[in-house]
């Protein structure tokens, strides 16, 4: 028994099936027939619109297939959630990676090996969010050796000064310099007081 029938004691009279309990004679046959025709027409229109959208999409997209152990790039978008996971103050790249393909999940989804800083994301992504990576030996960057102390700390050395400015604070003028360190790039340069940097690293000011 349907919930409607249990509540009201009679069957629900929809536009497709209007009848009273215990009777087999349909009422308002013309209206029911028109309803069927309208629903059929709506379905045909929806099918035409879906086919048109599919054709537009297929023109812009090429079928992509990846194999296990292939390496791919992951798109940074609200769909993947990568932008929120990176938590970067700088402009986010369009793609990050490469990541290794672990397995194929269905016809259009893949599981990839994410980096530890992306462990809060689900590792399965739609193929439209992935791009093939072609290995290139020139993409391998050799890391500079870092001397780590017993307490797991290491020395940070300045590389160069990229900018300088004067800041006014409580009626005083303080000279600041923007320094790039050997453990960061130009986007992570920090501002330091010029007098302190000049005392510690006088070679930076030799022209």
User: Given the helix and strand composition, which structural class is it?
Assistant: alpha+beta
Distance between the termini: 92 Å
Helix content: 10-25%
Number of strands: 8
Q: Return the average pLDDT rounded to an integer.
A: 80
Q: Give the CA-based shape.
A: elongated
Portion in beta strands: 15-25%
The biggest beta sheet reads: 5 strands, antiparallel
Radius of gyration: 33 Å
Total helical segments: 4
Q: Are there runs of 5+ residues with pLDDT below 50, and where?
A: none
| Helix and strand run | HHEHEEEEEEEH
How are the strands ordered across the major sheet? 4-3-2-1-5
Domain Tf2-1-like SH3-like: 70-133
Pfam families: SH3_Tf2-1
InterPro entries: SH3_Tf2-1
Name some characteristics of this structure.
207 residues, alpha+beta, SH3_Tf2-1, five-stranded antiparallel sheet, 4 helices, three-stranded antiparallel sheet
Can you walk through the features of this model?
It is a single chain. The protein is an alpha+beta fold and 207 residues long. Helix content is 24%, strand content 25%. It contains 4 helices and 8 strands. The strands form 2 sheets. Strands 4-3-2-1-5 form a 5-stranded antiparallel sheet, with no helix packed on it. The protein is elongated.
Brief overview:
The protein is an alpha+beta fold.
Any chance you could write out the topology, listing elements then pairs?
Elements: H1 3-8, H2 29-60, E1 71-75, H3 82-86, E2 95-104, E3 109-112, E4 124-126, E5 130-132, E6 158-169, E7 172-181, E8 190-193, H4 194-200
Antiparallel strand pairs: 1-2, 1-5, 2-3, 3-4, 6-7, 7-8
């Amino acid at each position: 028994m349907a919930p409607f029938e249990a509540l009201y004691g009679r069957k629900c009279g929809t536009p497709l099936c209007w009848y009273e309990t215990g009777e087999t004679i349909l009422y308002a046959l013309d209206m029911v027939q028109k309803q069927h025709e309208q629903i059929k027409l709506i379905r045909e229109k929806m099918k035409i619109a879906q086919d048109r959208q599919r054709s537009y999409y297929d023109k812009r997209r090429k079928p992509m297939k990846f194999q296990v152990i292939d390496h791919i790039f992951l798109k940074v978008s609200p769909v993947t959630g990568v932008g929120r996971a990176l938590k970067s103050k700088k402009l986010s790249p369009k793609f990050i990676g490469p990541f290794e393909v672990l397995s194929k999940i269905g016809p259009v989804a893949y599981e990839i090996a994410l980096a530890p800083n992306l462990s809060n994301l689900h590792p399965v992504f739609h193929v439209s969010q992935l791009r093939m990576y072609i290995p290139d030996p020139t993409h391998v960057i050799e890391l500079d050796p870092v001397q780590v102390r017993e307490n797991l700390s290491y020395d940070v050395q300045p590389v160069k000064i990229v900018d300088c400015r004067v800041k006014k604070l409580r009626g005083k003028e303080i000279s600041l310099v923007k320094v790039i360190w050997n453990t960061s790039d130009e986007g992570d340069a920090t501002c330091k007081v010029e007098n302190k940097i000049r005392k510690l690293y006088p070679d930076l000011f030799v022209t």
